[in-house]
Amino acid sequence: xxxxxxxxxxxxxxxxxxxxxxxxxxxxxxxxxxxxxxxxxxxxxxxxxxxxxxxxxxxxxxxxxxxxxxxxxxxxxxxxxxxxxxxxxxxxxxxxxxxxxxxxxxxxxxxxxxxxxxxxxxxxxxxxxxxxxxxxxxxxxxxxxxxxxxxxxxxxxxxxxxxxxxxxxxxxxxxxxxxxxxxxxxxxxxxxxxxxxxxxxxxxxxxxxxxxxxxxxxxxxxxxxxxxxxxxxxxxxxxxxxxxxxxxxxxxxxxxxxxxxxxxxxxxxxxxxxxxxxxxxxxxxxxxxxxxxxxxxxxxxxxxxxxxxxxxxxxxxxxxxxxxxxxxxxx
Length: 331
Description:
Layout lengths: L1 H18 L10 H4 L6 E5 L6 H17 L3 E5 L6 H8 L7 E6 H9 L11 E16 L8 H8 L7 E4 L8 H10 L4 E4 L3 H10 L4 E5 H10 L3 E5 L24 E9 L4 H15 L2 H9 L3 E2 L4 H21 L7
Parallel strand pairs: 1-2, 1-3, 5-6, 5-7
Antiparallel strand pairs: 3-9, 4-7, 4-8, 4-9, 4-10
């Protein structure tokens, strides 16, 4: 874990300066004075009803009231978020195209060597929006009731226990890789076509465990179809406050899903500042916070600079997890 932290600090200092060099260029006030004067397109790298779509609509409704122009959702699912990311990266940097960037893209940056966009260089961060924990769930027949008991079961039996995921490099695979490395356990990976497949496989006993978004499996946990051992956040989740964190047993362990909003690189700083102010105000509104909490998302507004650091840190962390897992990045 220390290697991850050392790696992050150096990368942040170097890349952060590059990513924000354009901010030093003077931006005439007129950029923001008449902005916006038409609808704002928000590219979503997911389908209708996905978390980024829901959150973007919540923010859009609030910001419409403040700026007087609607947010128009442009759904671009596919290619691990790459289709949406490429479309947003190539859009005009005029403030009329925004992109809901998610943790899926930081994983893709670690997994693929020839992406048609650069997560750091091609976007101007506006604000982090929120974070969501995953949870380690096991089949109810597995004779464990805690992370400690799971480790005690697996350590003497390398490769005996298998776990499911939505595929190599997915947001249900990498937290398991990180857990195995930090807990010093050896488990067998069984990739499914998607996350629901891994979830079903855990419930039926095809695999012993999987890491799933907490909101996706809460009903199965409450009905006894799954047994939850711990959440992946550094603190307990308000959605399931009785569940311990994995880090209580494996110090330093953390793996969060997250979302944020960005614009194409070279969007005028005055527009970025105006959008940041409105996004932060929307995320602090009690009704938005309540609706986000209902889908298991903790609002976490930030400055553009802080969000830039977050993106860089997450990409470097995902690269280190990929290295720890012996995963070979693909073209």
